[in-house]
Amino acid sequence: MEQAVARPSWLQHLPVAAALIDETLRYRAVNARWCRTFALAADEVVGRAHAELFEEDGGYWTQALRRVLQGAVVEGEEMLLKRRDGPAFWVRWWGQTCSLGQQRGVILVFEDQTEMHRTREALEASRRLLTRVLSCSLEGIMVLRPVYQPDGEVADFVWLLANPRAHALLRQSELEGRRLREVLPEAMLPGFFEACVQVVQRGEPLRRTFCLKQTDRSLWLEMAATRLDEGVAVIFRDVTEAREAEAKLREREQLFRLLAENMTDLVALHDAEGRVVYVSSSAERIVGYTPEDLIGHRLEEFWHPEDRKRLPSLSEQAGEEDHPGVLVYRFRHRQGGYRWLETHVRAIRDATGRLVQLQTSSRDVTDRVEAEQALARSNETLQQRNRELQDFAYIASHDLQEPLRKVRAFAELLKEEYESVLDDEGRYYLDRMQDAAQRMSRLIEDLLTFSRVTTQARPFERVDLHAILEQVLADLEVRIAETDAQVHVEGHWPVVEADPTQMRQLLQNLIGNALKFHHPERTPEVWLRARLEETPSGTQCVIEVQDNGIGFDEKYLDRIFSPFQRLHGRGRYAGTGMGLAICRRIVERHHGQLTARSRPGEGATFIVQLPLTQPPDVVPPPSSTTHA
Predict the structure, then answer these.
(1) Helical packing angle, 579-589 and 424-455, nearest 10°
(2) Is 21 within 8 Å of 108 (Cβ atoms)?
(3) Which residues pair with 209 in a beta bridge?
(4) Of 1, 5, 29, residue with least CA distance to 17
(5) Quick check: 297 and 276 in contact, CB under 8 A?
(6) CB–CB of 157/180 below 8 Å?
(7) Residue 6: is its pLDDT beyond 50?
(8) Are 548 and 525 in contact (CB under 8 A)?
(9) pLDDT at res. 452
(10) Residue 129 in 3-state DSSP?
(11) Rounded Cα distance, 304 and 307, in Å
């Protein structure tokens, strides 16, 4: 229904923001409330089109105002009204046609809803945030409203809210609006209903762990409930794995204590700083202290002062489960004196790798340590005597050369000057003397060589055995030609860690023996083989020197490697019986083995086993002082 408007003065008396707009959508009048609401003066508005003052939101205002001009009535629509040169306003507005003289117009009434709209937006944002938090939470969250009996007692609870995690843990697709005792009867979640009633009645927060008994499983739920208006807010999480882990830990602790109390070793647990928090009763038997005497102390407090200086602390020495740290030290006994203890230290860490405890097991090794010390003293004495014997052998051999040289020199002069004077018997005696002196000289030289294997040895270095073999074969070229021997080199001759001079002497002695003890009825043949073998102690180089010579009976195997031992007379084969003894001495110095296999008349095979690399603690002895 069209309303007649004689003049706009009545607008000023309206308690709301009001305006008149003509058919051209220009403002004809606005009241003071309208000016205050939109922060515009009346003379800035009257006569101007609505679209000049306010932005169009998709043409909404132009279309809406024309719809009112055509007779439509707008009551309480809410829309954004934004000034072109200023702020935006959320307004609820009413519109109705009116008569403006000869033309039609529109009466507009506005109610500013900006603050309310902002409040609603903030509430909606909070609601969305809460929804996201509830959806993403790893804990179950639910809100329950109590249902009362006529006498005021709580009869049940109704779910008002439950997040996805609560649905998952309780295995329920729908909870909102359902009754608590219907979904979770007492037998299924014992004590939970009474706990919620207690929170409602007392208004005090409650924290407790409940067991949720489902058909195929039981869950332990840790719940925190608090009063929320007239209802209860419950937050809960699944602690089943933690409970099971705690139970296993208690079982292991009981087993550990049972084992510790019955072990002969001293077993202890320490905090991360090394202080004892538990120690087995065997402590009193081993070190004289009761467990109460040691708890709260560090074991280092009882160590010998010298050991405290030279050893790291328990926490610094701690190893992992498979590789515990090991300490050997002196521990002060309660009755005086010190006992030697061997302690194995293991670190106990949390999931982040942080050290939380130490576990140690200690045993009394006093007898063992004292025996080792006695053995070390005996070894030192034995080594000293060996050095003295080696020096004596060197000096004796060296000093024997001088008179022997004189004997040989005078015998040579006697033969040159007086051979014509001597009869046959005299010349025979002279030849025997010269031969004996020559054999004595070779014997002394071999004895010197035997002693030098250890007294004048060179440091170990990387040695190419194939290059050494070629040098040896070149040195033996004349002897090989004289015996018309055939030499076959086979296999892979590797690089080893050794003394190059001694490797050359070893191969020369073994190959020389194979040529010397050849069979008189067949052409000498020598096979030289080398290969690598994997053994528990590491990679070994195996060298074989095989011949087709006269061989020997293996019952003499140990004898042939002893000094001055010969299986054949000097008339048949020259030599002093020192060659193989020197070979064994060289091989033993290189931490290897030398053996042989043979049959009389069928040749012999000498087998050398050498480590590819020498042990790291091996330091070749220094050369002895040269004796005058």
Answers:
(1) 10
(2) yes
(3) 222
(4) 29
(5) yes
(6) yes
(7) no
(8) yes
(9) 58
(10) helix
(11) 5
